[in-house]
Amino acid sequence: MSHFVKTDEDVEVLKLYRMLRTTTHGPKEIAEFFGKRRPWLLLHENEVKFLTTQFEAINSFVNRPLNIRIAKLKKRYFKKPVIIFSFIDVIFLVGLDVAQIVLEVIK
Q1: Is residue 43, in this structure, part of any structural domain at all?
Q2: Model's pTM, two decimal places?
Q3: Distance of CA 97 to the CA centre of its chain
Q4: What does the pLDDT look like over 83-105, one tens digit per residue?
Q5: What is d(CA 90, CA 3) in angstroms, rounded to the nearest whole number?
Q6: pLDDT at residue 25 in the model
Q7: How many domains does the chain have?
Q8: Is 107 exposed, middle or buried (0-12, 13-18, 19+ CB in 10 A)?
Q9: Does 88 fall in a domain?
Q10: Looking at the structure, do residues 26 and 46 belong to the same domain, yes or no?
Q11: Is residue 2, in this structure, part of any structural domain at all?
C-alpha cells in the first residue's frame, strides 16, 4: 500500500474514482499515513473500521478484472513510445480506410 499512495496527487486520483471518501484529513496527511509505517500507532475502534473500509475499497478497485487486464496490457505492450505511436498510426489508418470505403459506397 505504501507504493500505491505516495503523493497528494495519488490521493486526489483515489478520491476522483471514489475509492477514498472525503475525510476531515487533507491529501497530504492521507499520503503520509499510507507512505510510512507506524508500529507505535494506536487507533480508536471507529478509526480502525474506517481505515478497514478504505483498504477494502482500494483493494476492490485494484482487483477488478478490467483494471487487471488494462494494467497487464500497459505493462506488456506499451512500454516504449514507439509502440504507442505505432498504435495511434494503426488506428488512424484504419479510420482512413473506413472513410474511403464509405465514400466509395456513396458514389
Answers
A1: yes
A2: 0.36
A3: 33
A4: 888 989 999 999 999 999 999 99
A5: 35
A6: 75
A7: 2
A8: exposed
A9: yes
A10: yes
A11: no
| Cell output for 90 | 494503426
SS (H, E, C) the chain: CCCCCCCHHHHHHHHHCCCCCCCCCCHHHHHHHHHCCCCCCCCCHHHHHHHHHHHHHHHHHHCCHHHHHHHHHHHHHCCCHHHHHHHHHHHHHHHHHHHHHHHHHHC
Amino acid making up residue 107: K
- Please state whether 18 falls in left (phi above 0), alpha (psi between -120 and 50) or beta: left
Q: Which domain holds residue 14?
A: 8-63
Check whether residue 18 and residue 59 sit in a common domain: yes
Residues 56 and 88 in one domain: no
Direct distance between the N- and C-terminal alpha carbons of the chain, in angstroms, rounded to an integer: 59
Question: Does the pLDDT value for residue 64 go beyond 90?
Answer: no
C-alpha cell at 66: 478490467
Instruction: Check: CB of residue 79 under 8 Å from CB of residue 86.
Output: no
Cα dihedral 21→23→28→33 (10° resolution): -80
